[in-house]
């Protein structure tokens, strides 16, 4: 039993830190730290910086452009980048579609799409959820009917994150309406510029529109855009979901958010003393800090098991639940820290370069919107209740 | 980074688990735990001969282990078997003596021939740095002790009590034979098995060398660190068993024509138990790591974090295990109920979850 990293791993961590000091623009880390909105250009900027270093697709095999890192190195990089307030990489092409193409796609698809993901030519979004298919994803209804060398797609996807920027969407579509729910689904790549594709923004409770509805009306998709075999899409979708859950604990991001919370608690006063010295607030802070320290070790245990070839099963569901609970607890306390000044809604203050007079203490205006936005964590990627179903199925076995 | 115990420790754990399964299955454990002596002298002697006590101490103190992960492995097994043998006394007294540079006194403790108990807590509430009500005053060449000590584990079985008492120089530790004149012990059973006792000291006279640690606080800090780790690991072991028993019950107990594990209300409760037990295991690993690598406030903070975690998680696990078992979980007959009691009562030893959360906060401010 040894919680320490090897000297080589520590040297790698130093290399990552040095890189972040040199290459992560302060303008970007400052926006992330303060919870401001990132523009498309912001996200593309960080994407390009990592790509230039060869560290962008850190979980891809080397022959497709990965850096050849171990599981532990990936965990170290993710942790350091999050602690340095690097923008979160948009995962749809890099971490969701790419692993599916690498495992199930054709060589032509890999050669065509993977380089375009790396160099930022294609911005991907995810076409999974539908109005009638959320946690019960297999009940999806968007249909694809074969017509010569094309599929004709009709239906609607929803909760499409950053779909407003996307060039392409990977979609689960129903190709066999007569089969059992999971068996008639295919995995299709659709050009967002195709006639019949329409994107409508959904404004969320924080006033932001990071998600969309995507409508498909007689959209013609070439058959070569099918990934793998027809009607086998559910297998690929499940594989993608396990990928989506790597680094799901978000320990680095929670640690960074906790440091910011502690700084807030030290800078504000309540009842004439530092908020951090308020006994109830201090107890809430301490509980989260302990939970997070436990989580960090739980996460490393899963990483170490993966490094020894273990496949994450129920563990990734546990990490998702606990990791998101901790992050949500941090955002709730950050909101409460500001007291009355969590109330003013100043959307312009969430954008870079806002020059208006701040209402209340610094950062007060982002606390409540961030809190509300982060309620998504326990809903997306398989809601925490679905994760509990998975844990129970795997361990109780019923 | 390696989260496997070493080969030696895995063997120690296996040996201990096999021995306890054979010699102290739960019915025999209960007979001893709720019996007249509150433990099994035969099991204790057998474990001592296997070297289990020696595993709790470093070579410099006459043992062959003594690291945080040695203590974790031994006490996790103690928790799994609900062992009531007086290990905690040996661990705490031994580490206090070693810290007080009196490792020469450890040999009979490690051999299991001398049962010892730490007599530190007092009947009256006392702040963490407040003086003890128990007083030690110079008496000729030696000492005279007067006072009372509360809920001393296995006090009746102990040949020696390590008593904390206030002197004019501060707190010191004294080794007191339990049959010394002026020592009286009111023994009683504990709710989760085993026995403890109220110890009264009235004009107990001791020779000068009975003061084994002049700086009692430093020696007690060593004992406390070991105890917090040990109790946290013991809670973890007991929680693992309660969890496994509950999973098995969900698989086999049928109602409405199906195993009750089919019901989502119960599935979600057991899923929460599973993930919180993993978090508790991480907390104990962190505590063992702190015991070996950290000093002072940093070490104590991580130890308190673990004791807080197993206190809070233990309450969840014990309550959920009983609830998910339904009526049968309430019975004396079912082993689970004894696990639930032990898990719960660990939160009453060496400070509960609230006290350790406060200690964690205070140590963070001091740092």
UniProtKB/TrEMBL annotation, chain A:
The keyword Flavoprotein applies. GO terms for molecular function: flavin adenine dinucleotide binding; oxidoreductase activity, acting on the CH-CH group of donors. Residues 231-394 form the Acyl-CoA dehydrogenase/oxidase C-terminal domain. One of its GO terms (cellular component) is plasma membrane. Residues 125-219 form the Acyl-CoA oxidase/dehydrogenase middle domain. Residues 6-120 form the Acyl-CoA dehydrogenase/oxidase N-terminal domain. Keywords: FAD, Flavoprotein, Oxidoreductase. It comes from the Bacteria. The keyword Oxidoreductase applies. Its cofactor is FAD. Belongs to the acyl-CoA dehydrogenase family. This is Pimeloyl-CoA dehydrogenase large subunit. It comes from Sphingomonas abaci.
TrEMBL record, chain B:
It comes from Sphingomonas abaci. Residues 121-199 form the Acyl-CoA oxidase/dehydrogenase middle domain. Keywords: FAD, Flavoprotein, Oxidoreductase. This is Pimeloyl-CoA dehydrogenase small subunit. Residues 230-344 form the Acyl-CoA dehydrogenase/oxidase C-terminal domain. Belongs to the acyl-CoA dehydrogenase family. It comes from the Bacteria. Its cofactor is FAD. PANTHER family: ACYL-COA DEHYDROGENASE (PTHR43884), ACYL-COA DEHYDROGENASE FADE28 (PTHR43884:SF20). GO terms for molecular function: acyl-CoA dehydrogenase activity; flavin adenine dinucleotide binding.
